[in-house]
Structure formats: C-alpha cells, structure tokens
Design brief:
363 residues; alpha/beta; Rossmann fold; 3 domains; 15 helices; 36% helix; binds iron/sulfur cluster
Length: 363
C-alpha cells in the first residue's frame, strides 16, 4: 500500500474513530479548532465529523490566507491597478471583495491584473516588459512568505515592487483563546505552516494557556489521529505540544526558509478581515528593501476598508463562531459562482469548502 493510500485507509480510519469514542470524556463537550483551509477540506470531504461522538466538535478558525486579507489591502491593490501599475497575484485573490470592488472588477474595468503561479513568474514578466511597473500582491501565511522572501533577497528589477500582505498564524490562534464563548479545548495546528515554522511558536499554548496542541497532516488518518491525540491529553488532564505530522514537520521547521524570511521581512502588527488588528501578526519589508515597497513607491493611500458587507457573516465564520450554513446568504445570495463574502472565494475558504463538498457533516 502506498503511503498516500495508507493515510486514507477506511479500516484504519474506523479503528481510530473507535479509539476516539473510547477516549472522549463522556459528559464533557469538547471543541477543537484547526486553522487551516486544507484541514477543513479533508474533514469535510471525507465526512470526518460524522465519525466523531456527539460531544466532540471540530471548528474551523482563520486558516484561509485569502479570506483574512482586509478590504483595505484589496483597496490598495485596486488603487495601484488604477494608477496603471500591472498587479500580479495568485488566482484566488482576484475575486476577494474590496470596499468598492475586487481586483477582478478592476480588471474588467480595464486595469492590467495578471494571475501568476509564483512570484518568480511575476519577476520574469517585469524583466521582459521593462516599460511597465509591476507589483506582486504577496498574500499568504508562513507557507508562501519564503517564496516572496527569495525574490526580495534576489533584488528584482527596478520596475518591480511588492504589496506585502503576509500574515502569521500563531498570533491568530492566540486571539481565538481570548474569544470568551468559543471555549476551545485544543488546537489542531496546521501542517503546511508548521513545516516552515516548526513547533517552537506553539509552545506557549500548552505552557501559558494549558491548551493541548497537536500539529497534524492533511490526510484523513492524520486528522483523526490529531483529534485522538488531543482527546488523550484531555483524558490525562495534560496539555502538551505534539507532532502527528513528523514525517514532514521538524521541531526546528525549515531553518533556511526562516532565515530568508527574517532577512527580507520584519514582524509588525496587521489587520485581519473579520478579526481586526493583531500585534506581531504581519510581515513588512525590512528598511533596506524599502525601494521595493509598492505602497511608498506609488504613494498608495486608502481610507479604512469596509470589511463587513451588509448581511455577510464572514467575520463570524472566520473565527469559527458560526458554521457556513448558519449565514443566511449561504448558497442563496452567496455561492461559489457568485461569492458575496471572502470565505466563499478561495478554495481554502470555509464557506467555499462547505459549498463544494457533498459529504459535509454539520455537527
Ligand atoms: S455564505 Fe458568503 S456571505 Fe455568508 S459568511 Fe459565507 S462567504 Fe460570507
């Protein structure tokens, strides 16, 4: 059996589900939170919630990097596009709503907005078209920030700059612990992000908050094992940091990627759609790379963005307070074909995952 099939083995899944049922504290309501769009996809696609006992719930936190880009930063990208700059970005950023329009709408109105598969593709375009100014709209968590850092450190051509909108996951997890009525019992920490940052940034959750935390991979067996490991900690009255995804995630993360990130970026406060401003949760270019800072280079200025659109409940979905189908617009006014809120845009958005996956279970 290949490793992939092994991690999707239904018999093994049933075995772990049985252990979960045996380990779950009988009379206690337990709520685990993950912060990863791919975890939500796995849980929803494979119907994993239906394998859990009634008193064990898994909620989705702010794990979609596109959903949490604040409207003001979409507005900045739109403003740049309207100034005649070529905006390059990943495809799922295009339809994220800004205060007045998305990048897709700016493109429809004549702006030059191009989808790229990597930041290096954008740099190559700038090298080929020297008569134009290019900006890469750098959206993403710690998973994508190293690729941006590589190009920053590689000193791209003078007609290239960055609109940096990278965010860091651990501060958002910490914020969730302060949301009183969420009552989280443990974290399933994200595999992709952890492959870069390692386990150290999560140490505070068990140490300071006595919050069991398990880094888990993305196959169904990984997620079920992560849930089982969390339940085991609760049954023992323990709070530990554990690594279910040790075949990929090392304690120290990826030192080379971390080094490049810290050479290119400084950590700063940042706004998150649906959450607000979080200290130490965003990246900005270090001062020595200011020449590549698109906001300064093109004198970008936007007013406070409009994050919450009328009737949209994305701000509650993003922090796991409600499920997508509790939003009155879900699959009515807001669909994957015509998304209203940011959570319906990206394939990693919770609403989009629920909308496009037939086996969702709404426990
Ligand atoms: S259904 Fe649409 S409007 Fe409602 S929370 Fe989800 S993305 Fe936002």
């Amino acid at each position: 059996m290949t490793e992939k099939l092994q991690f999707r083995d239904p018999a093994l899944a049933r075995e772990i589900a049985q252990k979960i049922r045996e380990t779950a504290l009988k009379d206690e309501q337990v709520k685990f939170c993950h912060v990863c769009g791919t975890h939500e996809w796995t849980i929803t696609h494979y119907g994993l919630r239906s394998l859990l006992p009634q008193n064990v719930e898994v909620i989705a936190g702010p794990g979609c990097p596109v959903c949490i880009v604040p409207a003001a930063e979409i507005d900045e990208a739109v403003q740049l596009a309207q100034k005649g700059v070529v905006i390059t970005c990943f495809g799922d950023v295009l339809r994220v709503p800004g205060s007045n329009m998305s990048l897709l709408e700016a493109k429809a109105a004549g702006a030059d907005v191009r989808v790229v598969y990597s930041v290096s593709d954008a740099v190559e375009m700038a090298k080929r078209e020297k008569d134009k100014e290019f900006v890469f709209f750098a959206v993403g968590f710690e998973t994508t920030a190293p690729a941006t850092a590589v190009e920053v450190l590689g000193k791209p051509p003078e007609n290239f700059s960055f609109l940096v909108s990278h965010r860091l996951i651990p501060p958002a997890m910490e914020l969730l612990l302060g949301v009183g009525d969420l009552n989280i019992s443990g974290f399933i920490a994200p595999g992709h992000v952890s492959a870069i940052i390692g386990l150290k940034p999560y140490e505070l959750f068990p140490r300071v908050y006595r919050m069991p935390t398990v880094v888990a991979g993305f196959e169904p067996i990984d997620v079920l094992m992560g849930i089982y490991m969390l339940l085991k900690q609760l049954a023992e009255g323990a709070a530990r940091l554990e690594n279910e995804y040790s075949r990929v995630v090392k304690w120290e993360g990826n030192p080379r990627a971390l080094q490049m990130m810290s050479q290119a970026f400084a950590v700063t406060g940042g706004n998150w759609r649906g959450i607000g401003r979080l200290p130490n949760s965003a990246l900005r270019l270090r001062d020595e790379f200011r020449a590549y800072e698109a906001r300064e280079k093109f004198n970008v200025h936007v007013e406070q963005g409009k994050d919450i659109l009328l009737g949209c409940e994305c701000h509650l979905v993003i922090i796991g307070k409600i499920k997508p189908d509790e939003c009155p617009m879900f699959m009515k006014a807001c669909t994957p074909a015509k998304p209203v809120g940011a959570c319906m845009v990206s394939s990693e958005g919770t609403c989009r995952v629920w909308a496009t996956t037939a086996t969702r279970s709404t426990k």
